[in-house]
Amino acid sequence: MYEQMEEIAPNAFLVQAKTYFGGGKWYTLDIDYNRVAAILKKNRYQGYISLEFEGQESPSTAVPKSLALLRKAFA
Fold first, then answer.
1. What's this model's pTM, rounded to 2 decimal places?
2. So what's the pLDDT on residue 28?
3. How many structural domains is the chain composed of?
4. What is the tens place of the pLDDT at every residue in 34-45?
5. What DSSP string describes 20-65?
């Protein structure tokens, strides 16, 4: 999947970042957000990154964890 991200990154204008704390409802992906961030930085992405939480953990605890994860990776 990272090879495909490399291909489309130069054209990206919005990025949705999924997290799956508590396991996904339909599926779960193990996404290396440090690697994704490096791909986007290399391509000078300056747009928004929106959080899409799809896990089964309570949003009240999972969303703050998700934001911390993404802020660390994309800092």
1. 0.87
2. 84
3. 1
4. 999 999 999 999
5. -TT-BSS------HHHHHHHHHHTT--SEEEEEE-BSS-HHHHHHH
| Closest-CA residue to 69 (of 48, 51, 55, 57) | 51
d(CA 71, CA 75): 6
The closest alpha carbon to 54, from 14, 15, 26, belongs to 26
Domain containing residue 8: 2-74
Residue 25 has pLDDT above 90, yes or no: no
CA dihedral (67, 55, 40, 4) in degrees, to 10, reads 180
Is residue 27's pLDDT more than 90? no
CB 18 within 8 Å of CB 50: no
